[in-house]
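The step that takes the researchers longest sounds almost clerical: writing a folded protein down as plain text. Below is the pair of lines this work produces for a single protein:

——
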Amino acid sequence: MKVLMISIDKGLLGRGQLGDVIERHREYGKFVERLDIIVFSKAGFSEYEVSDRVKAYPTNSSGRSKYFFDALRISRELFKKNKYDLIITQEPFLTGLVGVKLKKSFGGKLLVHFHGDYRGLKLLFAKLFVLPKVDAIRVMSRGQKDILIKNRIKPSLINVISTPVNLEKFINYENKNPEHQERILSLNNTQKSKKIILMVGRKDEVKDFNTLFKAITLVYEKDKNIGLRLVGNYEPAEAESLSLPEGLKNDGGVFISGRIDSNDLPAYYKTSYLVVLSSKSESFGKVLIEANACGKPVISTATTGAKEIIRDGYNGYLAPIGDAKALADKILFLLNNPEKAKKMGENGQSLVAENYSGNSDKITNLWREIIESK
């Protein structure tokens, strides 16, 4: 099968990616004859060969207003060379509109992804302009499916398959590998025996760092032996400007790692005490699965995605969205109860191994089913 994907993830162009986006799409390539990906981007990017079957094409647009037209232009050129069986769009908005236009012009089936927890006017836009033309929808969680059904989207269109996670990469990270062991030792040495609270994720308003920083401030008032490590968001030069206690900063308790190689990410989980996610909205929450796979307890705001991953009190805790005190209370409880924290991490490792394996196969099998459907 030949697949054309419309994406907004610039990590597919081989620059600045956080996590395993390249690795995942390389894996998809094993199941297809051809996977071409058009990525919305401003000027300055080059085509990127993900694998011998997967290639990413930047729109190199002069501005955001040009993304739609540039994506259509590149798509038309690609359709001259290939008859794609399936068009996939990363979201039901601008990429979704490109997908609708391509389906109308060239045929093929259309699959639209919901990677975000969309509601209100955004969901209304999707219902009016994109979803009437789709052959299938993929969401990341059952909670997302429930929201769509309540909004009168046909249940038969909606498929729940979360983002794939290479669990083996996290569960057995140091497993007699000298380089992995050295990386963990190096991180432990820099952390000065502090109990590290880790936050992994892009710098984005939806991640709600304000609530995170307020929670860490409350925790620090009662436990001075903590450290906060930020990965994939802030850069080291920004440390002084963060709204965190001066004592925590002066004591060397703020560790900012910026963007890191995705292959090193397990080491950051392994050397943390617990992992926290303070988001206002998450359709999934892959970092929670990765942290549990590394045997670490997780604390998250009660987003749609987090509520599906976390069994409250079993592999982690949930706190109300935007509630810094509740987040701080959960963190403090685990800091003060190391055996409970250890048990939660062990529970999480078993839970994710049971529930989140083999999703790359499930995704590509869905592609085949859509193509073969009448």
About this structure: The mean pLDDT is 95. The longest helix spans residues 338-355. Residues 299 and 317 are 5 Å apart (CA to CA).
